[in-house]
């Protein structure tokens, strides 16, 4: 199971980033994991907007 983290911004957008590879993805040369994806943690980013909204402002 590959572990992911989610970052929730004030602009209501979210970004999901890889935290750690699963066993199969670590051993695959292209790091392709086709197993279960697990969201381990969600982080609220108080007072911050995402990079896309920052570029538009």
UniProtKB/TrEMBL annotation:
UniProt name for this protein: Uncharacterized protein
Annotated organism of origin: Pseudomassariella vexata
